[in-house]
Automatic annotation (TrEMBL):
Protein name per UniProt: Uncharacterized protein
Length: 127
């Protein structure tokens, strides 16, 4: 009879105690875990997992991005260079280099041509 009485007390008291523990102790434990364990876990993650992830990103993602840049961006840049820079360079060459070349040709070739003309005239006149 005594065991039955104790069993009835257990059946009545234990759920109440479990409920009180859930309401009072669990929030305290959860708070302590948040304050003590989470910073440690976060630090371990930063020290161990982040370098691994960064390394994986470098090895996997960067080559893909570089390949995409080569395939998509470089042709666009080359096209823009052809459309914008080449005409400017050609224009600068026409404005700066051609007059210099023409001047050099006048200074070097004209006297030679005049000399040939004079020689040809002399030869024709002597016939």
């Amino acid at each position: 009879m005594e065991e039955t009485f104790i069993e009835k007390i257990r059946q009545a008291v234990l759920p109440l105690l479990q409920n009180q523990i859930r309401q009072a102790v669990l929030p305290l434990l959860q708070n302590q875990i948040r304050q003590a364990v989470l910073p440690l876990l976060q630090n371990q993650i930063r020290q161990a997992v982040l370098p691994l992830l960064q390394n994986q990103i470098r090895q996997a993602v960067l080559p893909l991005l570089q390949n995409q840049i080569r395939q998509a961006v470089l042709p666009l840049l080359q096209n823009q260079i052809h459309q914008a820079v080449l005409p400017l360079l050609q224009n600068q060459i026409r404005q700066a280099v051609l007059p210099l070349l023409q001047n050099q040709i006048r200074q070097a070739a004209l006297p030679l041509l005049q000399n040939q003309i004079n020689l040809t005239s002399l030869l024709l006149n002597n016939r």
